[in-house]
Amino acid sequence: xxxxxxxxxxxxxxxxxxxxxxxxxxxxxxxxxxxxxxxxxxxxxxxxxxxxxxxxxxxxxxxxxxxxxxxxxxxxxxxxxxxxxxxxxxxxxxxxxxxxxxxxxxxxxxxxxxxxxxxxxxxxxxxxxxxxxxxxxxxxxxxxxxxx
Length: 148
Description:
Blueprint: H1 2-18, H2 41-44, E1 52-54, H3 60-67, H4 84-88, E2 90-93, E3 99-102, E4 104-106, E5 126-130, E6 136-141
Parallel strand pairs: 1-4
Antiparallel strand pairs: 2-3, 5-6
């Protein structure tokens, strides 16, 4: 029994060691991937580019931390967005009279951005997250997916 357990453990270790430890890519959904999903106003109307807020480039120490061996491997840098980012957005009126608040968030030197809201509550409104490639997540409503 002990010998069989060692063989299974050795085989499992070989399988785990053979797995690639590359950079993980986030799952992406496009607007067309979910039939019937409501498109964001930025796709429904001809709206110009939103105002932009640029995060400071990640520090060299943050990049070095990503290179360090860890289990599980680190796949991103967690950074808080400063309160002035909210002031950088702008309110606009859509052709149908809807009021829209829009903001483009940029992070120079980053491969991608994931957004995490805390204390999310949009009331009767809706929130979409749109990537540079046109990928869209949302709409998020109420207190969000996890009602936190």
